[in-house]
Hints:
The protein is mainly alpha-helical.
Amino acid sequence: MALLCAMNTCSALAPFKKAFDEQYVKSSDNDALKAAFKSASCNTCHVKGKKKDWLNGYGVQLAKRISGNAKDRLATAKAISTDAQKSENEKLLAELKKALKETESVKSPSGVLFSALFADSAMPTAKGAKSVRAEDFESDDEAKKN
């Protein structure tokens, strides 16, 4: 999974996968959930066989809740200093953790809450997939402006 999503970009970032793993998988005693996550890996948020800017319904919901372009935010911070990069990474992880929690109460494209999906040891499917590069893709901060 290794998700780093923002309004117009999505890239791999190991700390994002780790955040999902810590919040849902490692804290669970459900071996079926652990196996499902291990099998799905990147496809917990991304769509198998497509470029990484394609997200399934779950990935789309997470991406909409992360402000701005995360990749650019990290690059800008890195150009300033290592400390700035570390601070920006921490901010992004905090946004992701909040997005993970908020998305639990969102219905998946199949009509089941994402929290119920995980409780049933299931992973999101490609249903509801969208490219974050699509013109009609909006993060929540963009939608609030309209």
